[in-house]
Request: fold
Amino acid sequence: MAVKQMLICHKRKTPIFAIKSNPMTEKEFIPSHYTQTADNGSFEWSAPSNIALVKYWGKKENQVPANPSISFTLKDCKTITKLAFERKANNDAFSFDLLFEGQPKESFHPKIGKFFERIEAYLPFLRDYHFTIDTQNTFPHSSGIASSASGMAALAVNLMSLEKALNPSITDEYFYQKASFLARLGSGSACRSVKGSVVIWGGHAGTPDSSDLYGIPFGEVHETFRNYQDTILLVDRGEKQVSSTIGHELMHGHPFAQQRFAQAHENLTAIKNILAMGDLDGFIKIVESEALTLHSMMMTSQPYFILMKPNTLEIINRIWKFRAETGTPICFTLDAGANVHVLYPENVAVKVFEFIKNELVGYCQNSQYICDAIGAGAESIG
Reply:
């Protein structure tokens, strides 16, 4: 990558790259200057998907969540993105090519274009370059697993790598906070896929550094929950009848919205203590209740809709029966769809996996499932 010195064109009394004890504001993510210039080069990162334990459902303007959430970052279900850049002769428009699994993907262009529009104020160099975005997923594209979180997180950390090349004084803390901030503007939950094995997103009274603008790692995790397992049962790989975007919008004016938002705050307070103490019974109760509450919000909105399938309910009932009969600390959670995430500690993995193969896989579309576990967030490649 070609890098040259350039003059500082703006001054600021306090450097924007110094992290305060209080959450960062939007203005602090706007760069005052760059000390270097880069003519061409490339970066490559992977970023994982995540599964929320306390769910985010409902949002305000500018991708601000209506309630806080907490999630497990996954390890193997991830997007790998290479970003190549070349300085242009003019900067009158955004310019990029997008490849998905090596092939041009025109259908992704509007989403990336909108993302660039949203983040241009925070990355003012975007119009200076032509970008080639080459991306692929480690999980099947039509699996029903949302790839927007991992995809936007991977793109955000690549763009932050370019900003760090333009200003090497950026700290790692600022790098990841801003990457999470940018990812959120592409897809809300993407901000939880940047850093940490357990991530909190959304302002929460019991979490002093929490923010609506980006996710923060939650480090007080008991060893019981380290390397926690997530087997994803692919019940339905088809396109959802109602998109998550529309589902979020339907929380405006929802008859139970305020009660739900208050419940999320309470459950986040509770699950933080549960994760710190290693309380499996408490974990199961909150995680399953949150999953069912998410879908109850869908079923009581106007218009109402159901994303679970009959096999989703069959799997849930069999998990409950197995847990009652064996005492095994297995539980489920759901995303905004029909798939089931089966969560369990590593020390019962052999027993639970036998149960999954013998009793649950038959309810999956084409008997397909994915084995995953808690991961650490985005990683630079090469």
